[in-house]
């Protein structure tokens, strides 16, 4: 009588362990940036996450509806958005896995955003954490602000990259902030009817809104400069003038103004 083979059960155990390991590695990579944003001392003045900013602003505008625009490599904090502040939580995700080639997926989210706009949807707070190419960032910002209710706000992630190496125009598997910060500055410079500032936390959390009485706190924010006076697409120019360009606000001042 031949001895029973151990190959089959061992193979099942091996692949079972491998699947769990792969899931854990994906989870670790997915959450590492959000954790680092709060605790990494190299991230200037950490203390609030992008979800915290959205929650505080939701309370400020007495909002009830929230929309998040993100991708499979951005966002990652949807569960941290307060269900007590927002009774209606909505999310658009694009650039999801598409067959064997992840890069073949939609890289802008425009079809879904256009569908929302045509349906007349509007939200008190729209959080934009785009695929960090210039094109996707601009499309998301343009649609995002049009989906904001009057008196509401658009929140934008990754507006204050600390290092040039994080700002490549092409996707990087590890840490990638891309050129969203440039799209953000180009966007606000072309929209004089809008006001903005950036909270100096979690890689730079931008806040964009229409000028109304609800935002009277802006008198305590650094003055708006003529962005056309500086070539901020040059990294050295941006880095040396980031405080003025982004109108950076510390976590402490943001809390004082809006909590």
What class would the helix/strand composition place it in?
alpha/beta
The total count of strands amounts to 7
Terminal CA distance: 77 Å
What Rg do the Cα atoms give?
21 Å
**Mean of pLDDT:** 86
Strand proportion? 15-25%
Strand/helix succession:
HHEEHEHEHEEHHEH
The stretches of 5 or more residues where confidence is low (pLDDT under 50) are: 34-45, 99-104
What CATH calls the topology is Rossmann fold
**Major beta-sheet overview:** 7 strands, mixed
Number of helices: 8
Strand arrangement, major sheet: 2-1-3-4-6-5-7
Task: Give the structure's gist in a few sentences.
The chain is α/β, with parallel strands linked by helices and 259 residues long. It has helices spanning 7-39, 50-60, 110-118, 134-146, 180-189, 235-240, 242-246, 251-258; strands at 65-71, 88-94, 123-128, 148-156, 194-199, 205-210, 248-249. The protein has a single domain (7-258), classed as Rossmann fold (3-Layer(aba) Sandwich).
SSE diagram, text form:
Elements lengths: L6 H33 L10 H11 L4 E7 L16 E7 L15 H9 L4 E6 L5 H13 L1 E9 L23 H10 L4 E6 L5 E6 L24 H6 L1 H5 L1 E2 L1 H8 L1
Parallel strand pairs: 1-2, 1-3, 3-4, 5-7
Antiparallel strand pairs: 4-6, 5-6
Helix pairs in contact: 3-4, 4-5
Which labels suit this protein?
Rossmann fold, 7 strands, alpha/beta, globular, 37% helix, 7-stranded mixed sheet
Structure description:
- The chain is an alpha/beta fold.
- It has a single domain (7-258), classed as Rossmann fold (3-Layer(aba) Sandwich), CATH 3.40.50.
- The chain contains 8 helices and 7 strands.
- It has helices at 7-39, 50-60, 110-118, 134-146, 180-189, 235-240, 242-246, 251-258; strands at residues 65-71, 88-94, 123-128, 148-156, 194-199, 205-210, 248-249.
- Strands 2-1-3-4-6-5-7 form a 7-stranded mixed β-sheet, with helices on both faces.
- α3 runs parallel beside α4 (134-146) and α4 packs across α5 (180-189).
- The longest helix is centred in the first third of the chain and has 33 residues, at 7-39.
- The radius of gyration is 21 Å and the shape is globular.
- The termini are far apart.
């Amino acid at each position: 009588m031949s001895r029973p083979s151990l190959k089959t059960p061992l193979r099942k155990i091996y692949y079972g362990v491998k699947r769990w390991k792969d899931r854990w590695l994906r989870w670790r990579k997915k959450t590492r940036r959000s954790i680092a944003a709060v605790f990494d001392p190299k991230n200037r003045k950490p203390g609030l996450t992008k979800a915290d900013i959205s929650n505080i602003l939701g309370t400020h505008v007495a909002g009830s509806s929230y929309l998040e625009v993100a991708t499979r490599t951005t966002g990652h904090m949807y569960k941290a958005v307060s269900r007590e502040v927002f009774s209606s939580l909505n999310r658009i995700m694009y650039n999801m896995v598409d067959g064997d080639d992840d890069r073949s997926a939609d890289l802008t989210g425009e079809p879904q955003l256009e569908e929302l706009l045509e349906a007349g949807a509007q939200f008190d707070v729209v959080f934009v954490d785009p695929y960090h190419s210039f094109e996707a960032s601009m499309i998301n910002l343009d649609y995002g602000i049009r989906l904001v209710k009057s008196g509401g706000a658009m929140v934008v992630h990754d507006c204050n990259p600390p290092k040039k190496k994080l700002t490549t125009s092409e996707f990087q598997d590890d840490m990638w902030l891309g050129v969203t910060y440039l799209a953000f500055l180009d966007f606000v410079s072309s929209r004089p009817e809008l006001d903005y500032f950036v909270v100096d936390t979690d890689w730079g959390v931008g806040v964009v809104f229409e000028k109304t009485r609800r935002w009277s706190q802006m008198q305590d924010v650094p003055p708006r400069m003529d962005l056309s006076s500086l070539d901020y697409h040059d990294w050295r120019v941006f880095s040396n003038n980031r405080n003025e360009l982004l109108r950076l606000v510390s976590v402490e001042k943001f809390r004082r103004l809006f909590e």
